[in-house]
Amino acid sequence: MQFRHVVVWPLRLMAPGAPTADFGALFVEQAGTAWKLVDDEYTGDPAAFQERHYSEFVAFLPPVQRFLYGQGLGRLVTPGYGESPVTTARRTDVHQVRLTLAPLGEVITLDVAHIDLYFFVDIPLAMLAMEVVGHNMTVIQAQESMYQFGRAYPAYWEADGSGGHCPLRVEWLSGTGETLATSDYEDKRKYLETVCRHRAPAIATHWEFLLSPLVIDHADQAGGLRFRLLEYNNMPLLTYLAMSDVNGLTRADRARFALASGSAQHTTTSFSDQELTELEARFGYAQARESRGGRDWGGIHHTVSGHALVVIGPAGNPFFVDAERGYLARFRHQHFLAFLIAHFHRATLLMLSDWLSVIMGRLVPADLGSTGTFRTDMRSTLEVFLRFSHRYWFHDIADHVQTRDLFNLLRHRLRIDELFVELRQELQDMNQYLEGDVARRQNNSMVRLTVVTTLGLIGTVTTGLLGMNLIDWSAYQPLTKVLLFVGFFTPVSVLVLLSVVRSSRLSVLLDRLSDEKVTLRDKLRAFGDI
User: Fold this and answer.
1) How far is it, in rounded angstroms, from Cα 501 to Cα 494?
2) I want to staple 185 with a disulfide (CB 3.0 to 4.6 A). Which of 123, 166, 285, 487 is the partner?
3) Is 387 in contact with 122 (CB distance < 8 Å)?
4) Cβ(5)–Cβ(241) below 8 Å
C-alpha cells in the first residue's frame, strides 16, 4: 500500500504590526530559522515549468488563480493587490518521521515530502502543511497513522503514562538519520502545569521544534511572532491510499478511514449495517471514473467528512498512481489546495469570532476610555473582515466537476457558510451598537447646544442693546472699559457654564414651556428643579 498523508494545522498569529503586514516575510527574517521563502514556480524558467503546474493552474477559476498565483509578478515581490497575497515558507531539514504507534509499540518510518507554512496578507493566520509518505503499509498501520500522527497535545493519559490518542513516540530525522526532535506526550506534568497557569494547552516538543521561531503565545521564551491554537488537538488531514486489493476493504474499514478513527484493534467502536449505510450516504462521494489510454479506470473512492478527505484507489491503476499527469498529481495539488482554502476560510472565521468575543469582554460602557478602545478595535476587526470577504472568500473555486464538488462538500461539512453568516450578523449588531452610541452622544450634544444657544440669545440681545450707544462708553477711561468688560464677561461665562451643567434640566424646562397642555404650576416646578 502506498500511503500519502497531509496534515493542515491552522494557527492564529498574535504578531504586532499593521493588518496588512507580510507575516511570512517577518517570520523568515528572524535569525536562525530553518524556513526559507518559496519563490513562485509559475514565474521562473519556462523550461522548468511542468505539466502538473499547468494542470493545477487551469483547474481553478480566474479569481482563485489570482489569489493563489498572483499576476505573474512572483511571490518575492512586496505583496500588494496585484500579486498573490499568499506567502509560502518551507523547511527541508526534516527528511523522515519515525513513528512509534500505540498501543503495540510498532515502529514505522515515513518519508517527508514537504513541510510548508502558508501566510496570508491582511489576515493574521498561518497554516502548517506537512506531507508524509509510507510504502508497503498495512491497513491497520495506515488507520493508526491517520488517527495518531497529527496530534498537537494529548487528550488524556493511559494507565501506563502514554498520551491518549497519541503515538508513543514521534521523531523528526535528518537526511543522515540524526534525531532532530522527539515528542513528549508522556510528560503529564508539563501539560497539567501549562493549563493550570495559562488556561491554554501546551503543544508537544516536536511540533514546537517544527514551528520555531513561531512561539506559542503563553510561552516564556522570546519570539517576535507568536500564535494561539484555534481548534482541537487533532489536525485536519488528507489521505491518499493506493491499494493492491481495494475490494478487500470491509465497509467498517472504509468507515474508519473516512472518520480517521483508528483501527479496530485500537477502539471498541463497532458499526451496525444501518450506521455504515448512513456514513456512506453522508460522507461518500461518487466514484471517479477516468478514461485514459483507451481504458476505463474506475474504482476510486472518496470520503469527505470535513475534518478529513480520504481517497482510496487501486495501486494497479497507472492513472491513479501517476504523480505527474494522473490522479496522484491531482490529489497533491488541486485537492490539497481546495482543502487548504476551505480550512483557511473556517480558521479565519473562527479567529474573527474569537477576536470579537475578546473585544466585547473588554467593553465597559461607563468608561469613556474603554468605549473609545472598543470603537477602535471594532473598526480594525471590520476592516480585516472586509479584506477577507472581498479578497479571499470564494463560493466556487473550480469549473472542474470533481474539484468543485469536493470543495462544496468540504464547505458544507465544515459549516463555513453558517459561520460566515453568524459572524457577519455579529459584526452588523456591533456596528449598529456603535452607530447608536454615536447618535446618542450627538443627540445629547445637540440638546446641550440648543439649550446654551437659547440662553445665549438673551446675552446676544443684551449686548446688542449695549452696542446701540445708549450709553456713551467712549467717555470712560481705558481701565474702566476693561473693568466693565470683565464685569460683563464673568457673569455671562458663569451663566453659559451653568447652562451646560444644567442642560438636561433646562431641556425639560424648555419642553414644558413650549407645551400648552402643561399647567403653570408644573412649569414653575420644572424651573425650580434647575
Assistant:
1) 10
2) 166
3) yes
4) no
- Residue 476 and residue 456 share a domain: no
Residue whose entry in the numeric block shows the C-alpha cell 488517527: 147
What is the radius of gyration, based on Cα positions, of the chain? 34
398 touches 60 (CB < 8 A): yes
* Same-domain check for residues 374 and 431: yes
Contact call for residues 30 and 120 (beta carbons, < 8 A): no
Same domain, 379 and 475: no
Alpha-carbon distance of 183 to 165, in angstroms, equals 14
Cα separation, 230 vs 208, in Å, equals 16
**Quick one: pLDDT band at residue 324, thresholds 50, 70, 90?**
confident
Please give the residue range of the domain that contains residue 351.
332-461
User: Does residue 56 contact residue 6 with C-beta atoms inside 8 Å?
Assistant: no
C-alpha–C-alpha distance, residues 419 and 397, integer Å: 19
User: 69 near 84, Cβ under 8 Å?
Assistant: yes
Q: Tell me the C-alpha distance between 362 and 374, whole Å.
A: 8
Residue 76, pLDDT score: 47
Nearest residue to 130 via CA among 118, 139, 141, 138? 118
Q: Is residue 98 part of a domain?
A: no
Scan for cell 536562525, then name that residue.
32
What's the residue count for the chain? 530
Question: Nearest 5°: phi and psi at 406?
Answer: -65, -40
Q: What is the mean pLDDT of the chain?
A: 82
Cell match 517577518: residue?
26
What the block records as the C-alpha cell of 161 is 503514562
CA distance 279 to 283: 6
pLDDT at 19: 47
Residue 518 has which C-alpha cell? 402643561
Tell whether the torsion through CA atoms of 458, 463, 467 and 473 is positive or negative: positive
Residues 64-74: pLDDT tens digits? Answer: 888 888 765 44
Q: Is residue 196 part of a domain?
A: no
Instruction: Please report, for the chain, how many H helices and E strands are present, in that order.
Output: 17, 14
pLDDT of 43 strictly over 60: no
Chosen domain end from 442, 461, 480:
461
In this structure, are 348 and 384 located in the same domain? Answer: yes
Torsion sign over Cα 438, 443, 448, 449: positive
Q: Annotate 497-510 with b (16+ C-beta within 10 A) or e (fewer).
A: eebeebbebbbbbb
Residue-wise pLDDT tens digits, 417-434:
999 999 999 888 877 877
Predicted local distance difference test score (pLDDT) of residue 171 = 97
Number of Cα atoms under 13 Å in the Cβ half of residue 358: 8
pLDDT in tens, 328-372: 999 999 999 999 999 999 999 999 988 888 888 887 777 767 777
The DSSP call for residue 323 is S
Using alpha carbons, select from 486, 346, 480 the residue that is nearest to residue 422.
Answer: 346
